[in-house]
Write a structure and sequence with these properties.
There is one protein chain. Strands 7-6-5-8-9-10 form a 6-stranded mixed beta sheet. Strands 4-11-1-14 form a 4-stranded antiparallel beta sheet. α5 links the parallel β8 and β9. The N and C termini lie far apart (44 Å). The chain has 2 domains: 102 residues, no CATH class; 198 residues, von Willebrand factor, type A domain (Rossmann fold), CATH 3.40.50.410. The chain has 325 residues and is of the alpha/beta class. Helices cover 26% and strands 27% of the residues. The protein is built from 9 helices and 15 strands.
Length: 325
């Protein structure tokens, strides 16, 4: 979807299409009689200039395969349900020109509501250096921002780094979301080499999306160029950007970029992201468990004209044995 100026690209619609993949629960012998409660965070959006409609639980259609599932709860992420843990992850391989955007990031941090705890980390060596754990002290979070090192380290992969953070992130009742600022290029050498010709899909993105879906983490991505020979290869750069889009789409997030160049400002992207965060809902529904716990595809839709709902295209469902305990 383009913004009114035609500069911002969002991929929530792609997430909705991916969510239409049929579920395998019926083939596994699951029954809705043994349904378990599953929760998810959903982002609602309308076209620029349109007013967000009132949305009731009856307006939300959740399907597992052909089966329409019972919606137990649909509430705005506001008031006593507004809790959000938001991590800003910056790729240390980013060009140091990212320093010109630090003011935009600080402004974004300071604008967040008091219910949002903000963490800051830097992706390097397939790991995240957490320089600030999620905190409600937004001034402290903003002060933790620094220039990227301009190097990914010996084993740089934004996808392995993000997976590392999600595995270490303590469980809580709050929403969990990540904003990755990166060019999406895997510099570890595990996958496509710098001279690769043609679009390459990194399997580590699929692994990261599975962890995100299992932990209920939404991943948003913002493209900024990196340094080094990897970025100078057109196909490598395009593959990295494509991987960013895939991860956001699979987890219900947004992906922002303007070609392969350095954006003049991050403010338009961050303004758009802020609207997304301010229009989120907590969804709870019944799903049929399979014999073993695992990710199951669900589709999310609505009959309200002009309204788009975005969420992860799969949710973690406990197994039948777990559900009976």
């Amino acid at each position: 979807m383009k913004s009114a100026k035609g500069y911002l690209f969002s991929y929530t619609a792609l997430a909705a299409m991916l969510a239409a993949i049929p579920s395998a629960y019926a083939a596994a012998g699951a029954s809705m009689d043994d349904a378990v409660q599953v929760t998810a965070t959903v982002s609602a959006s309308v076209d620029e200039g349109k007013r967000m409609p009132s949305i009731s639980p009856e307006d939300v259609i959740v399907r597992q395969g052909k089966e329409r599932l019972h919606v137990r709860e649909w509430v705005p992420a506001q008031g006593n349900r507004a809790g959000l843990e938001l991590f800003l992850l910056i790729d240390d391989a980013s060009d140091t020109r990212l320093g010109s955007h630090l003011a935009d990031l600080k402004d974004f941090i300071h604008r967040q509501p008091s219910s949002t705890a903000i963490g800051v980390g830097y992706m390097r060596n397939a790991h995240v250096q957490v320089v600030q754990e999620p905190t409600l002290d937004h001034a402290r979070a903003a002060a933790a921002l620094r220039l990227p090192m301009g190097s990914s380290g010996a084993y740089g992969s934004p996808w392995l780094s993000t997976s590392d953070l999600m595995r270490r992130w303590p469980v809580s009742d709050n929403r969990r979301e990540i904003v990755m600022i990166t060019d999406g290029i895997d510099r570890s050498g595990r996958n496509a080499a710098p001279g690769w010709r043609g679009l390459h899909l990194n399997p580590d993105v699929d692994a990261a999306s599975s962890i995100a879906q299992r932990t209920g983490t939404i991943v948003h991505t913002i493209y900024t160029p990196g340094r080094g020979r990897w970025h100078r290869n057109y196909w490598t750069a395009m593959s990295g950007q494509s991987d960013m889009t895939r991860l956001s789409a699979k987890t219900g997030g947004e992906s922002y970029y303007l070609g392969l160049g350095n954006p003049v400002s991050l403010s338009p992207y961050l303004d758009r992201l802020e609207k997304v965060l301010n229009n989120q809902y907590l969804l709870s529904f019944d799903a049929a468990p399979a014999k073993k716990p695992g990710l199951q595809s669900v589709s999310l839709n609505t009959e309200i004209a002009g309204l788009r709902l975005a969420a992860a295209d799969a949710v973690w469902v406990p197994g039948q044995e777990q559900a009976s305990n």
